[in-house]
Request: fold
Amino acid sequence: MIGTARTLRELSVSPRRVRVWDLPTRIFHWLLVLAVGVALWTGFIAPEWWLGLHRGAGYAIVLLLAFRFVWAFYGSEYSRLTYFIRASRHFGDYLRGLLLLRPPHYVGHNPVGALMVFALFAMLIALVASGLLVEGGEEKRGPLAGLVAYQTGFVAKGLHRILVYLLLSMILVHIAGVLVESRLQRASLVRGMITGWMRVPEGMPMPSPRPAHPLRAAVALGLFTSVAAGVLLVLSRIAPPGIPDLAPNATVAAECGACHWPYHPSLLPRTSWAALLAGLEDHFGEDASLPADTLAEIATYYERYAAEAWDSEAARRFATVSPNEPLRITDTPYWVAKHAGLDPAVFDAPAVRSKSNCIACHRDADSGRFDDQAIALPKGASP
Amino acid sequence: MRRLSFAAAAIAALLVSAAALADPARDAILAAFADQAKSADAAFAGFSTDRGRAFWTATHSGGKPDTPSCTTCHGADPKAAGQTRAGQSIAPMAVSVTPDRFTDPEKVAKWFLRNCNSVLGRECTAAEKGDVITYLSSQ
Reply:
């Protein structure tokens, strides 16, 4: 945090330098780099069960953006919204200068840089918003779980994927802009964002920057986060629609569970369950016939809680069965696509033994959630 | 004194395991299979541990290709747990390890019906069922 007195003293020692970026702005910038980096890494490269970290990075970005929004009003001169707006008004002049390779000098952001910051923040807000829609609709988690249908989450995922490529290209333009401007100014803008100091070019009048108001910023941020936390709390109390309160059934657990993990009823549509239970005499290569009353109880349960009764990701995806093997969950197009990258030896591991043993890796399979972060491959198995 | 209590414990343990092995419910199931075997074949002269072992470990034909033998899922050692083709554990079949084996007539009927069909492609005879229960009770 820099005070007015200290700024003036440092200015008097080195009159051609100015503290462009105060400490909170610099910390914000590099934490944002870190959070976006983690989000990109967990989104593109890390295995699916790192989704929890991806979500954490998203929430970190929200907090950082909230801080930056507050700091745009209470930060020191060059961090302020008014400065950014003023800078972006010179866009035409700057661009003309850039084309002649004699761009005018600016302390703080040049007009293109200022616009880029607005664009980057808008993009991050869009990414975070679409991410929350995916989290709520597909995963039935997070503050929007009670409001967003699976289909909305699915569409948001497509959008999230497109936006991230736009963000990546904007990051590249941002870095390229920093390098070009550093070259033209003959001063490293990167170092400026580390030390906070930038050189004031000869002939330019020394600016008299407005100081930061850390206390007011802290109060505003506190207010903001309290209100946001309250809203999140209220939203999180709304039960997700399309997630029935599934009562565990002892008959299903005993009879189906004697030979295989008792499948969650949301994993096949009604027609498939009915056909499967009508043919237990040849049940995937074994006789699994049941007394009529037991069979009737199990059939009622699977009819009632079949995929049609759910709005979860697993139910919506497994509702599309294989045309040739409509009874086999592990032949559904979604199952095949999701497990295509796995080493087939995983299914032969003693702890797994069969593709049908969902719960060997999906620790939350009994709930039908199949969260990405609940996946744990058995020891010795590699993805 | 200590030796005496050891002896008492040993006797108690023997009594308990003898009681587990000679369960009245299991005896009743065996008696019913014996009656059926006798009415099917007048020459029937009791169940045999050896025939039961041979039947249990044999590779049969006529059933479903994935399950040619009882031991496919139950494993070669009746005192050890087996595993279904879908990965679920099956409690050991040996009565000395799982004392409540063959004491529930409905369960016995259900699993012989299913598993004989899977392994042999037919129902088992009363003599075969009795032999298997006799063999696994001796384990």
